[in-house]
Amino acid sequence: MQDVSGYFGSMVFDDRVMKASLSAGVYRSLRKTIDQGAKLDIGVANAVASAMKDWAVARGATHYTHWFQPLTGITAEKHDSFISPSPDGGVIMEFSGKELIKGEPDASSFPSGGLRATFEARGYTAWDPTSYAFIKGKTLCIPTAFCSYGGEALDKKTPLLRSMEALNKQAMRILRLFGNKGVKCVRTCVGPEQEYFLITKEMYDKRPDLKFTGRTLFGAKPPKGQEMDDHYFGVIKPRVAAYMEELNEELWKLGILAKTEHNEVAPAQHELAPIYTTTNIATDQNQLTMEIMQKVASRHGLVCLLHEKPFAGVNGSGKHNNWSLATDTGVNLLSPGDTPYENAQFLLFLCAVIKAVDDYQDLLRLSVATAGNDHRLGANEAPPAVVSMFLGEELNDVLEAIETGKPYRGTAKTQMKLGVDVLPKFNRDTTDRNRTSPFAFTGNKFEFRMLGSSNSIACANMMLNSAVAESLKIYADRLEGAEDFESTLHEMIRKTIKDHKKIIFNGNGYDEAWIKEAVENRGLLNDRTTPDCMPHLLDQKNVDMLTGHKVFSEAELKSRCEIMLDNYCKTVLIEANTMVDMAKTDILPAVEAYAYEVARTAAAKRAVDENLACRYESGLVRKLSELTDGIAERAGKLEEVVASLQEIGDVIGQSEFIRDVVLNTMEDLRSVCDEAEQVTAKKYWPYPSYGDLLFGVR
Ligand code: ADP
Ligand code: MG
User: Helical H runs in 9-41?
Assistant: First the structure.
């Protein structure tokens, strides 16, 4: 195997390739577009397109696509070939600047939540030059944003880019106030840790629930689950190791900095983490990573499950969004500095995040809400649905000292006034980890842990960026008009701590007592489900904030709320229909066949001796018969409930009906089927068991 540095990024049209293949003038103006958002001249676009095409064709590409992230949550692409007829009857390979910059996919079947009436089928895709083009298979993929002709965003990338711009603008105002002159821009960085399950393809193919919904809808608990905690960081099995090796190679070729991999807590569960990068690039790369994970798995006879809760009673999968703010000069604004002055700036950014998380708990919660993640948040291992923050002991002491005016850890002689020179130097505290907090400070970044494993990270980051931009805007407005900078700063920080300390919790986030305390004493939100939280997207305070920073228009917010709820309803509806189908066409016949065999056995025994009691067979047949009656009744009930769902006209009503009625009816059907699984002979049961699925990869 070649040295990684030899092929890292070999499938990416990155800066190295640009420099080598573009003329100096073209390279310079492209860089200006990438770094400063300068408008791209069509001549430059033509030159870039031509170089991109030559580079891609030399690597075997025949097609190109505008690669985008519609609101379905996955990526979309429409392939066009480079070929163009030449007069001599042959073809030449062509790709113009116009084709690079703008595409017009027939967008009528992507969700728009009413933004684009279906007769106006055209949306357009626009090149995002800050995220490098890459080759996948035989196709040159060009990362793009996707909008309607009216300019409304129809994708996840556009609002993400807008939120990054909003945050940049406000953070720059703060930096200027602190006398930072050299910085040109502030960007957010993200390192998403991705959890997933691997099972064998052979078993996957036997489970309609996994195929249609990505999770098991039935399945009795295996005799062994995760109770021994022997999987976490355990030795990686050879087949999984081979998978990870190939996955890494594929990701490296695409310039994705896959760095760590290990087994997770649940059997068959693993994690992959890349090195962090700028948020929009991290978002594109995470989408690509999820896609490649599945593709590579199929080459190994495996299936990669990205669902948040593939198995009931077993840890679900999340995605930890490690987030920080950095200047173009390489300074991490969430890193405590060496001097009191730097620390004052650090504390202000820290407070901006504290205020943002408290003020916009609802937006953070709903940014990760899906039918799948609802099964995970609040379950045994996952962070609760209540948003709170962990800061660690040291920072906590600093904040407390500032709030109360008492000495910091008894060391400072004078009270902690942010007169900048009195603020003590404190170390960054990386040892103190709290893995149960939904939003934890981990030394120089925040780790937002509520994201589901299949979520696009765009959603969480656009809300986080916008909310922090709002805090910074309020601070900048005040500081710019302040007569005495230092005392205003001190007072603002003190007030933020006082007003928002309710969001800070350093204890065990999984504890029931905490949820009670959070809701009853602190008044924090506990929106357990998607229907509970999603409508808050349209609360006036949220609309004002998001439109104020130009991250969304009001129409876009309405459409998104509608699309997300619709997606929730459709997801559960498919699950309900799959359950009915599995119960009626596989499970009932299986249990019946087994009952028949047992009854026949009793009859055969009695033919030998008519006085035999056959207590085992009689008892079992009665039990199986009760179970089949129960399954048939509950499947019928679920069908009825699903039918009555169709009568509810609005999506909010539908989602509430699903939350209150459909999910419970599904649970009822599941429990009786799982009971049947435990008394039916294994060879009759139509599906691989939890034990087979979880311990099947060797
Ligand atoms: P863990 O949280 O498991 O202890 P690490 O602290 O090494 O692991 O980092 C986890 C993820 O956080 C990685 O993707 C890493 O690149 C990312 N990360 C590290 N520093 C930063 C930062 N300043 N900003 C954003 N992400 C970061
Ligand atoms: Mg982590």
Answer: 15-21, 24-36
d(CA 444, CA 241): 31
The residues near 244 (Cβ < 8 Å, ≥ 6 apart) are: 236, 261, 270, 272
Question: Cα–Cα distance between 688 and 263 in angstroms, integer?
Answer: 23
Angle at 506 between CA 505 and CA 508, to 5 degrees: 95
Q: What's the CA-to-centroid distance between 389 and ligand 1, angstroms?
A: 17
Q: Which of 93-107, 117-131, 257-271, 502-516 has the lowest mean pLDDT?
A: 117-131
284 residue type, one letter? D
The residue to mutate among 186, 270, 289, 322, having the most atoms of ligand 1 within 8 angstroms of its beta carbon, is: 322
Determine the distance separating the centroid of ligand 1 and the alpha carbon of 332, expressed in angstroms: 13
List the beta strands (DSSP E) in 28-77: 63-67
Q: Which residue has the tokens 């504290």?
A: 354
Residue 109's CB is within 10 A of a number of other CB atoms, namely: 11
End-to-end CA distance of the chain: 25
Q: Whose CA is nearest to atom 16 of ligand 1?
A: 275
Index of the ligand 1 atom closest to the CA of residue 444: 23
pLDDT for the residue 636: 98
Q: In terms of pTM, does the model score above 0.90?
A: yes
- Is the distance from CB of 647 to CB of 592 less than 8 angstroms? no
- What are the residues whose beta carbons fall under 8 Å from the beta carbon of 689, sequence distance 6 or more? 219, 220, 222, 677, 682
The 10 Å Cβ neighbour count of residue 89 is 6
Atom of ligand 1 nearest to the CA of 335: 23
Q: Which 8-state DSSP code applies to residue 534? A: G
Query: How many whole angstroms from 446 Cα to the centroid of ligand 2?
Result: 10
**CA 27 – ligand 1 centroid, Å:** 32
Q: What is the pLDDT of residues 346-386, one digit of tens each?
A: 999 999 999 999 999 999 999 999 999 999 997 766 788 99
Q: How far is the CA of 201 from the centre of ligand 1 (A)?
A: 32
Sequence letter at residue 98: K
Ligand 1 pocket by Cβ (under 6 Å): 189-191, 193, 273-276, 322-324, 332, 442, 444-445
Tokens of 504: 């800070």
**Residue 421 confidence (pLDDT):** 46
Long-range Cβ pairs for the range 670-674 (8 Å, 24+): 670/217, 670/218, 670/579, 672/627, 672/630, 672/631, 672/634, 673/218, 673/583, 673/587, 673/631, 674/218, 674/219, 674/220, 674/221
Q: Following DSSP, what letter does each residue of 197-235 receive, concatenated?
A: EEEEHHHHHT-HHHHHHSS-S--PPPSS-STT--STT-P
Give the gyration radius of the chain's Cα atoms.
28
Q: Which residues of 229-243 are buried (b: 16+ CB within 10 A; e: fewer)?
A: eebeeeeeeeebeeb
CA of 323, closest atom in ligand 1: 25
CA–CA separation, 367 vs 373, rounded Å?
Answer: 11
Please give the Cα distance from 477 to 481 (Å, whole number). Answer: 7
How high is the pLDDT of residue 409? Answer: 63
Instruction: Evaluate if residue 269 carries a pLDDT over 90.
Output: yes
The per-residue pLDDT for 622 is 98
What does the angle CA 241 – CA 246 – CA 247 come to, to the nearest 5 degrees? 95
Residues 6+ apart with CB under 8 A from 209: 215, 216, 217, 218, 575, 578, 579, 582
Considering only residues 610 and 421, tell me which one the structure prediction assigns the higher pLDDT: 610
CA proximity to 290, closest of 147, 423, 193:
193
Pairing of the two strands 302-305 and 186-200: antiparallel
Is the per-residue pLDDT at 387 higher than 90? Answer: yes
